[in-house]
Amino acid sequence: MPQAIEPMGTASTDQTAAALLPHLATAPRRSGLIAMLGRAGNAFWRVPRESNYAKVGLIIYLIFALTAIFADQLVHYEPLEILFADNYQLRRNLPPTTDHWLGTSYSGRDIYSQLVMGTRSALAVGLTAAICVVAIGTLVGLVAGYFGGWIDNLLMRLADIALGIPFLPFVIVLASFMGAAQSNVVLGIALLLWPNSARVIRSQVMSLRERAFIEAARVTGAGKWRILFVHIAPNVLALSFLYTSVAVGWAILTEASVSFLGFGPSDTVSWGYMLQDAYASQALGRGQYNWFIPPGLCIVFVVMAGFFISRGYEEVLFPKLKG
Amino acid sequence: MHDEILLDVKNLSKSFILSRSLGDVINGRHPQVDAVNDINFTLKRGETIGVVGESGCGKTTLGRMLLKLIEPTSGSIDFGGEDISTLDRTDELAFRRRAQLVFQNPFDALNPHFTIRRSIYEPLVNTQVPEEQHDQLVADALVRVQMDRMLHLLDSYPHQLSGGQLQRVVLARALVLKPDFIVADEPVSMLDVSVRAGILNVLREVRDTMGLAAVFISHDLALVRYVCERTITMYMGSVVEDGPTKDVINRPLHPYTRALVQAVPVPNVIQSHEPLALTGNLPDARNPPPGCRFSDRCPLAEDICRQSRPPLRTVEQNRRVACFKVPEMTAGTA
Questions:
Q1: Looking at the partner chain, which of B101, B136, B154 has a beta carbon nearest the beta carbon of A219?
Q2: Domain tally for chain B?
Q3: Residue B24 lies in a domain
Q4: Residue B29: phi, psi to the nearest 5?
Q5: CATH class entry, domain A38-93+103-322
Q6: Range(s) of the domain holding residue B309
Q7: Using the beta-carbon criterion (under 8 Å), do B143 and A17 form an inter-chain contact?
Q8: How far is Cα B307 from Cα B131, in angstroms, rounded to an integer?
Q9: Which CATH number fits the domain that encloses residue B221?
Q10: Do residues B323 and B313 touch, judged by C-beta distance below 8 A?
């Protein structure tokens, strides 16, 4: 029931107001979704600009992302292809050569190609799991923090339960019941890792809820969902980013652990799969450092990159913590 | 225009329930604070009332209830003849369009992630005003708060503005809906003295040209004297005095109002009484003194004050006061 408002005022103010109109009309229109995303993007880029930690982390991510995107062009062999020499001998346990940059595995597979392809699955798992974790965490944190009462109680007790479940065993059980697929690993991570971000965002929302500008939104007629998603959510978005970068590392580490323990999918090459393969084939005993060091280093780098970015975020967003 | 009653507050009370300590549970106590206690007053269309009292006397709680931001524990508020506690969503939006709030702290009253433009347009979007009217209404509001020469600020964010500019934005946001009632909660207390006069003049002009009814919540009698026709004094949740501002400040009846008037260094206030020194602090709101709540600090208190609560009664034309001692005082000092 849109209701018109009668203009009301003295002649002189009306005249001045009329003179303003063209300025308002030609000025850029008030923001919509695109502007909001733009601001979020600005906040996102501000961090690497201002912090060297974040810069390094972002560069590492960028290198891995490019590797994952162009993996098909970068590999020399199919990563799971069993390679034979011309004399029909298995090309097993070869040291690094120009043909096999990182040598070959016990079952005659090209390690370099596996490493490159592993980037793709690592990033796929890491990013989807991180996005799921933070999406659930942000939503739960917003709702619990804003509505409080029994909703808050219910959601936070769920969070307590999720935090109480041993993490890796749960993911393994889930993977063995529902099938060893990467999507199940992602599901397990999403189900158990959201409470961390949810709790932090909830506390942030609880303090925002009491701020005067939220009261201003109420007094100007904003409904509760509008207040939550339009007025409060942009103020916790930075925290969500922070938790995304931490969650990426966690997810990759978990996927690697699950694969290393042999519960990962056998048709997809991942760094954890490589480590498991190397371990089971006693690469360590044979001193095949070219086999297990590279995937280990890759995991370390990606997790470290996530840590660097979150560290950079912390410096920029909460400068008081620097001490 | 001063005849029609816009706001009718009847027996309004608000108690906040406090969390119980172990001792409270054992003793079966349910501690609560009566922030606002049985308040009655009416506001006519276009009238401005100042509500004064020291911190914690319930004036902010009262203001929030008038705007339906806090639900009262008991009592009713009729706005334009309708009880605001029973509004449905449609009627509530209509109410929101007519009743607005000006905040104390302009640095906290604007969303840090919104541009100034967005903050000013937001009320129009929220209350579903047709979009073709938005620019016109915003232009009117900007002129009213004298921001028509500050259009370049519209695309800034709040942290880029000064306190005085922010308070103009807060005012513009409150006025953009052309409300007929505003609550101004300490509208200038956070501002530098140098910009106060500017904001106060805007408030006065708005009051005069828009025929706005307003409740000014303040501890500053100078502000109240400058913009309000009527003044209500509150002490510990209750109205202790109500009357035309001129009379209340020049010739306060209630001993608490007298103390307030004399505590504020206002030039040109004719102080016809001996200074009335108050002793002690505000009593614990959980255990208010029996009888008159002011009795433990009042230099004039007698036994009756400590035993029963003085009702708010009309003592002169348009003046109400809650004190047993008033007839004697007026006889003695008038």
A1: B101
A2: 1
A3: no
A4: -90, 145
A5: mainly alpha
A6: 46-68+95-333
A7: yes
A8: 60
A9: 3.40.50.300
A10: no
